[in-house]
Design brief:
Structural class: alpha/beta
Order of helices and strands: EHEHEHHHEHEHEHEHEEEHEHEEHEEH
Radius of gyration: 22 Å
Largest sheet: 7 strands, mixed
Length: 412
């Protein structure tokens, strides 16, 4: 019998948990009786187009700790890309080459780990496979700290980013509250179209701190005058006001509130910068108070030292589930999570058709945002809280976290 191999790649932005999904794919492949080897393509679909591969099975066989270290290593062990495939009906040359590589490597299943744009690649490859009658199973494994993929309860990487954000807000509160002077601290958090990450700042609240005192998400139109009124009201109650704001907040006309012009990436998404700084200037010009802005930026993506144990466990399991789905001859789909209950927190692993997921985005439900548009509801807190639970055991070397060597990516 001709036993097939699998090929896996990663794409889009990094997270603390995407390598856990890769580890899950590798472990399930090794345990499978249907597959022989697991190959990894370097730098996403570009690695297939450039024939740049790693034999992950070989690495796991040579190092018994490889899968464990891979699970706890942040970002992308295989590297990433933001390459948009053309429509194959316009130009099928890339597709023809990719499927010739599948044949060359004897690939029975291709797994693409990533977010919204990566699922666009899964959709296109699935459609082309159906068009030419190829029997390679094409399956998406979700990943994105933005938590904006449809048809799944939440995405791998989000829980760890949420844990980091909430921890940072709590630490900022400790830093800020020591001064008995009026001050405003604005914390800008990633989120171009969806405010899930910014909403997670509310998890920092406890019995002695109500920070963040104001939360602004892109799902609700931002009004500068109302914002200033909100800030003045909070300053009348306390000395130090901490505000969490999404980078993608915009006014009622859809204009982004930024301090710089937006640029667009290859998928047409505007690259934003400066919402926090813009609001800092606004407060400074209108309210006589000490004010600063903090941009968490990339720090929230790969803070593996603050990873959620729940997040890593689910990410690993979704990688395994992708392999099992391929063994069941599923294709053109993505692994999804269905939440059964909040308490006790229970989820079920399943799949959904990629055509219903690619190029769609899941926003924070408006009913989970307060009517004033400056905070979130208890329902959203209940949704978020289980995702940050559990601490990950971390190995250290010379005082720093021990991660896998990634010199194969850039000779660092």
């Amino acid at each position: 019998m001709n036993i097939k191999n699998v090929l896996v790649a990663q794409s889009g932005g990094p997270t603390s948990a995407i390598n856990a999904s890769l580890a899950g794919v590798l472990k399930a492949t090794i345990d499978s009786g249907n597959y022989d080897r697991c190959y990894g393509a370097i730098n996403g679909i570009l690695g297939v187009l450039s024939e740049n591969y790693l034999d992950l099975t070989d690495k796991a066989q040579k190092d018994s700790d490889f899968i464990k270290l891979l699970t706890h290593t942040p970002a992308m062990y295989l590297g990433s890309c933001r390459h948009k495939l053309p429509e194959y009906r316009d130009d099928d040359s890339s597709y023809s080459f990719i499927f010739s590589q599948f044949k060359k490597l004897n690939i029975g299943a291709f797994f693409y780990i990533g977010g919204n744009d990566s699922m666009d690649t899964v959709l296109k490859l699935s459609n082309y496979a159906r068009e030419i009658g190829a029997d390679v199973r094409i399956i998406g494994v979700p990943k994105t700290i933005d938590n904006d993929l449809c048809h799944t309860d939440h995405t791998p990487g989000f829980g760890s980013a949420a844990k980091y954000i909430a921890s940072s807000i709590l630490e900022i509160a400790h830093d800020t509250f020591i001064y008995a002077v009026k001050s405003v601290t604005i914390v800008e958090i990633m989120g171009r179209d969806a405010g899930w990450l910014t909403a997670a700042a509310a998890l920092a609240r406890n019995n002695y701190s109500s920070a963040p005192h104001l939360i602004y998400l892109p799902e609700v139109a931002f009004d500068k005058e109302q914002f200033l009124s909100d800030v003045r009201d909070e300053l009348s109650k306390r000395d130090n006001v901490i505000i969490a704001v999404s980078e993608g907040i915009r006014d009622k006309d859809g204009n982004y509130i930024t301090s710089s012009k937006a640029m667009a990436d290859t998928f047409g998404h505007q690259q934003l910068s400066g919402a926090g700084k813009a609001l800092e200037f606004l407060v400074k010009e209108n309210i006589d108070v000490k004010v600063r802005s903090v941009e968490i930026n990339v720090l929230q993506r790969c803070a593996a030292h603050m990873a959620s144990k729940t997040d890593l466990y689910e990410s690993f399991a979704q990688g395994e589930k992708a392999v099992h789905l391929s063994e069941e001859n599923q294709t053109g789909c993505m692994v999804v999570l269905n939440r059964i209950s909040n308490s006790p927190y229970t989820v079920k692993y399943s799949h959904a058709q990629i055509k219903d997921i690619a190029n769609e985005a899941k926003s924070v439900p408006v009913e989970w945002i307060n009517k004033e548009g400056n905070d979130i509801t208890a329902e959203l807190i209940d949704y978020l809280k289980p995702l940050i639970q559990g601490e990950v055991e971390q190995d250290y070397e010379n005082g720093l976290p021990k991660y896998l060597d990634i010199s194969h990516l850039n000779h660092c």
